[in-house]
Amino acid sequence: MGDTAAATGYKILQKETLSDVTKLMVIEAPQVARKAQAGQFIIIRIDERGERVPLTIADYDRNAGTITLILQEVGKSTMQLGAMKVGDTVASFAGPLGHPTEIKNYGTVVCVGGGVGIAPIYPIARSLKEAGNYVVSIIGARNKGLLFWEEKMKAVSDELHICTDDGSYGRKCLVTDPLKELLESKRRDVAHIWAIGPAIMMKFVALATKPFNAPTTVSLNSIMIDGTGMCGGCRVPLTEGAQFVCVDGPEFDGHKVDWNSLMSRLQFYKTEEQAAVEAYKHKCNLDIAAEKGGA
Amino acid sequence: MAELTAKQRMEIPRNEMPAQDAKVRAGNYLEVATGYSEETARLEAERCLQCKKPQCVEGCPVGVRIPQFIKALREGDMAKAVAEMKVKNNLPAICGRVCPQENQCEGKCIVGKKGEPVAVGRLERFVGDYELQHRTCPLTKAPATGKKVAVVGTGPASLTCAVDLGREGHKVTMFESLHTPGGVLVYGIPEFRLPKGVVFGEIDYAIKCLGIDIRTDYVIGRTLTLKDLLEEYDAVFLGTGAGLPMFMRIPGINLNGVMSANEFLTRVNLMKGYLFPEYDTPVKVGRKVAVIGAGNVAMDSARCAYRLQAMQAKEGEDHEVHIVYRRSMEEVPARAEEVHHAQEEGVIFDLLTNPIEIIDDGKGNVKAMRCIRMELGEPDASGRRRPVEIKGSEFDMEVDTVIVALGTSPNPLVFVDADGLERTKHGTTVANLETGRTTKPKVWAGGDIVTGAATVISAMGAGKRAAADMHAFLSGNGTW
Ligand SMILES: Cc1cc2nc3c(=O)[nH]c(=O)nc-3n(C[C@H](O)[C@H](O)[C@H](O)COP(=O)(O)OP(=O)(O)OC[C@H]3O[C@@H](n4cnc5c(N)ncnc54)[C@H](O)[C@@H]3O)c2cc1C
Ligand SMILES: Cc1cc2nc3c(=O)[nH]c(=O)nc-3n(C[C@H](O)[C@H](O)[C@H](O)COP(=O)(O)OP(=O)(O)OC[C@H]3O[C@@H](n4cnc5c(N)ncnc54)[C@H](O)[C@@H]3O)c2cc1C
Ligand code: SF4
Ligand code: FES
């Protein structure tokens, strides 16, 4: 039921492989593209049995009526989505959700993107650049294979710093290193910092900027269900009390987030998630075996 | 059956509702109450005295023509019984299952003064189920008026409003933020109490007969705003309910293992978490669950949790679900039948008990819940005796999951770009209760968005009254 939209579905128009586990997809959803802004997200559901997965709007094209997503395959749903082909459809696609990033001319801003977080930081950096800011971007990943969009980031940044954990590309360091150096050197008066990436990275960015009292916005990725403020599953404790990431966020003041609570809540369904991945892989293997057997 | 005297009618005992055995059903999600047979329904119908001034109708929030439908039913004229029912109630198969009849029609029934009231709800369900299968009372549509109406939300208020406007020939488009229509009927009330087939049967039929367009995945306030809708439609009805969960402000409320009833029920019902990993959304309950609250939402959470535990339990493993409520059994707000069913199934009631802290296991998970015993003092503003803490009675209840079912308020997203739409300090929308008109021209509202969390039938009543006023307005007889 509810198949009024699902009957037609939302079509995958384009797909690119950015790394082994990172895929880009362009999806047709004109009603979402019409209102989409940097910093917002959508909720996707693959099929009638699928879960509701939040993904950031990495780009949008109002004229073409499309939304670009970048996904990292970390579990059953993202693997299944990553295996879909151009022309396939997904059952639900709701958005744009959450508050957009507050774009204005701050002066000098820093945009930090870690891993798949490079995707959502890109439209923010672009909008900040268009608003006249001096944009310093820092992107990082575990290794070269996981980095993407270097050229796109370069095009919207006045400075671009690249880090890898293993030194396979760019500088061998964490994203917090160039950030600290910039703040310590005082060579520019940094007005605002955005950081998007794994919770642990955002935590350390917030810790690094705290001594300088540099305003730091992070985009949180708590576990969600509806994405519309109905369940409270996405709540995150802030110094002034818990807020719902889906409607009050996803961006928050990084200095106010209770990072340990956020990270612990992200782990709650770990056992079930692993079971789902095992079942999914098993089913894929059976499908392959069946195809071979049939041939 | 020959015509009976009133005395004879009153001597017929009230017919029990056949139900799945409590032990069996506590391990499955199939419907608990299986419904009257035709024979039983007609026998129950004989108990009605056909009062000249029927009290039952007074007790019904929408004034269902109760004696009339019961008369037709006992005469075996099912088509007429359905037609009488549908004068006031579009969705009898749903209401018959979920209305709190003991406070409404049955609470007022004259037969109940001396014995047990006529089982109006069970008869209503029988008639509704008959109609679902036989469709003797087709929905017909007046010629197209050329007017376009947007109905936001797809719960009982919106469904009723949309159907009534569709029948008048207006072009109705419904907008739903979730991927499935039905509102609380689908995401909240569990399958074993209200099978989703019943809800979807009604929705599909309305779409088919009236050409109503349902757009799922449309979050009003985000995908489109009220302002956008007013530019495209001649009238807008808001029936977005009260879905924003409230949490208690006690230490430990954000620990892993503490969730709102909405989260738990949405995972179970809407996302079919009880079928994980066949369905993708997991839902986790521990071996010892505490549900805070004692309304319908709390009963549903407790009974879902108990079933889930039974389905996930290893051989011989114990499991418990507790309802933790600060007042006494007398004040429990849930439907009587649900309380009774929950007790039969094995849910434990800890009454006059209030949680004051949720305790961490050191790794961010729930280990226990600290509670304090209460006693009833003087009546408060609601007329109920106020519970007061008994000093020094604190104790720890060992639990690993806490489900909070303490009420909800309207979801604020729909109010984005809605200048002039007045709200109360509780977040509910200000609307005329007779007409549903809000303070913003061409916008009507009804159901939980206006009243705060209430009942299915009151939401339907509001949808119906608003539809009548909207139709008058659209036909040009009404001015704003
Ligand atoms: C507002 C928002 C925006 C997001 N944007 C993107 C995006 O643009 N691209 C992208 O790849 N991912 C994004 N995510 C994360 C993405 O939603 C999750 O990775 C996805 O739900 C995992 O589903 P799964 O079934 O594949 O994995 P699961 O089996 O559910 O999880 C696998 C692993 O991922 C972790 N995990 C689960 N849910 C989340 C989560 N919500 N965030 C982070 N880790 C999680 C689990 O702890 C587990 O270790 C976003 C999340 C939010 C809340
Ligand atoms: C678990 C539970 C058990 C209950 N049991 C009973 C019972 O036994 N008997 C009884 O009489 N009542 C019961 N109730 C109460 C009853 O279900 C509600 O009072 C009734 O459903 C309210 O109807 P509504 O049409 O106002 O809104 P809802 O049923 O809440 O529907 C609102 C709809 O609007 C959608 N929506 C919200 N915001 C937006 C937006 N911005 N854009 C688009 N769509 C939006 C929602 O997703 C939802 O589908 C129960 C409630 C719950 C939660
Ligand atoms: S009050 Fe009872 S006996 Fe009288 S008409 Fe209503 S159901 Fe029948
Ligand atoms: S995801 Fe349900 S409230 Fe945020």
Task: Please explain how this structure is put together.
The complex is a heterodimer of chains A (295) and B (480). Helices cover 31% and strands 30% of the residues of chain A. By secondary structure, chain A is an alpha/beta fold. Chain A has a 7-stranded mixed sheet, with helices on both faces. In chain A, strands 5-6-2-1-7 form a 5-stranded antiparallel sheet. In chain A, helix 6 (176-185) runs parallel beside helix 7 (199-209). With 480 residues, chain B is an alpha/beta fold. In chain B, 35% of the residues lie in helices and 16% in strands. Chain B is globular and about 65 Å long. The N and C termini of chain B lie far apart (54 Å). In chain B, 52% of the residues are buried. The structure holds flavin-adenine dinucleotide (FAD) (2 copies), iron/sulfur cluster and FE2/S2 (inorganic) cluster (FES). FE2/S2 (inorganic) cluster binds at residues 224-227, 229-234, 244, 246 of chain A.
Report the span from N to C terminus of chain B: 54 Å
Beta-strand portion of chain B reads 15-25%
Mean pLDDT of chain B: 93
Strand/helix succession of chain A: HEEHEEEEHEEEHEHEEHEHEEEHEHH
The computed structural class of chain A is: alpha/beta
Helix count of chain B equals: 19
Rounded mean pLDDT score of chain A: 90
The shape of chain A is globular
| Oligomeric nature of the chains | heterodimer
Q: What Rg of chain B do the Cα atoms give?
A: 23 Å
List key phrases describing it.
heterodimer; A: 295 residues; alpha/beta; 7-stranded mixed beta sheet; 5-stranded antiparallel beta sheet; 10 helices; 17 strands; globular; disordered N terminus; B: 480 residues; 19 helices; binds flavin-adenine dinucleotide; binds iron/sulfur cluster; binds FE2/S2 (inorganic) cluster
